[in-house]
Structure formats: C-alpha cells, structure tokens
Design a protein that fits this description.
The protein is an all-alpha fold. It has helices spanning about 1-25, 45-50.
Amino acid sequence: MGIWIQYAIIALVFIAALVFLIKRFAPSKKKQQGCNKGCGCSMTDVEKKR
C-alpha cells in the first residue's frame, strides 16, 4: 500500500506542474486595455482600434 501513496503524490505533483505551465503559457482571454509602456503607438491608435 505504501508504493501507491508514493505514486499518488508523484501524480499530484505532475498534475500541479501541468496546470501551472498551462496557465503560464496559455493566451489570456482578458481584453487588454491600452498598450504597455514603450510600445511605440500613440493613444490615438489605441482609440481607433476600439
């Protein structure tokens, strides 16, 4: 029975790592407001896109 607990812990760590990586690299579905600092566009360009 002890070996199964070890496998369960390893599986939980593996699943947690997968969830972390998916959240980290998956594109965000939030709508970005404006631009980041230094992007090179003016605020008038941002307003035209809306």
